[in-house]
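worker-3 :: picked Transcriptional regulator
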Amino acid sequence: MAPRSSEQNEKIRSNRIEEILNATIEVYLEKGVRATEIGDIAKKAGVARSLVYYYYKDKMELFRDLFTKYIQAAETYIKASLTSEEGTLVKLKKYVRFYLETTQKNPRFMKFYRQMEQDIGYVFEGVSDDVLKSYTLNTRQPLIQLFEQGIQEGTLKESNVRLMVHVYWGALTYSIDMFANGEFTEQEAQQQVDTVIDLIFKGIQNDK
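worker-3 :: tokens ->
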């Protein structure tokens, strides 16, 4: 048998890490970061405990890698979706729709994001202030800028920008929690997405 190429080895490595990270999400949602052990993750991933240690020296390094991956994914999506060439209202409504529809299809994924935000300080101990500051800046600042633009162009009501963003974000996150907790059936979900969008924008949209 011919030896594997470097590309094949890298693909195997990448697949193994992805399996471990996916298993970590599952265990994390069940037990939380403090109670999760490497053995739990290995069992969930269906791999040897030693293999997890081959890639990660300890649990906290694994969680830092996991959180970093999803922090970067969130920042990339938010930047792309809120700085596109579409109109302000279109972008803001699509933003709400994306998160609610994603939650309906994959509630555990959104539960992970919600829980991750609470545990960033613990996982990144020592540099948590910098990580939180960067994450907040990269996920909230595009929203603030978009609201400022909407007020300037007259599509959003004249108001305190940061207050409007908090109202918008608060309504969205509480709605995400309702969807993630399975409070709506699949048949009800689409109608409820439209209802949330309607309720949010009745409060902030300038109809003059």
